[in-house]
Amino acid sequence: MNAVSSAPILKIANVVAGYTAGHPVLRGVNLIAQPGHITGVLGPNGAGKSTLLRAIAGFLQPSSGRIVLGDEDIAALPPHRHMERRIALLPQGRSTFPELTVAENIELGGWTMRGDRARLRQAVEAMFARYPHLRALRDRPAGSLSGGQQRAVEIARLVIGDPKVLLIDEPSVGLSPIVAAQVYRELEALKAEGRTILLVDQDVRAAIKIADYAYVLSSGRNDIEGDRSAFEGDLGVMVRRWLGV
Predict the structure, then answer these.
(1) Which fold has domain 10-242?
(2) How many Cβ atoms sit within 10 Å of the Cβ of residue 50?
């Protein structure tokens, strides 16, 4: 796996997007994800965090605004064009295909290599080299694995295409604290390779611990933002405000 040494900057400018005409979830969101950094996106349920990731991944086209990768506005492009630009999404919750084997699930992440079977096989083997604990599970149905093992398969599927920009949605949901800590360490390792990571997380403390910069959304709009030091002392106050306490 080649390290990504020159991941492009990602800019979100005045993005308005939603699922029903006239009822936007995002109401003019602005964000900058610096290359080789982890940028956190925080906020209460319904703030638009997951919707933002879907728009960046191309699964939801904004009604207005710009999504700029490097110097290209990709807001109107379909999802497979985003994948070709090496943008990868790890969705919230379990996303393995339970009847497919571990190897088959990982292979699905190499969609852009589908025309070169030899290269795709090499990429799958590279994932088993990177995550050796999955090698013994390669022929097992993904649905038979534990939640932590399935998350590892999902991360391998995410990484197989050597993405420049990783969109990570609630990576620790349903995981034990020990497994969740392993996932966060892997995100830090991916960052160390020069990848740009946009992290949506309800675990505010865990996200702030690894994020270089964070944005808080509220009702589909920007609320506050700042680097790690701006949040570390006020997390309890922030969360209580979200809960209306």
Answers:
(1) Rossmann fold (3.40.50)
(2) 19
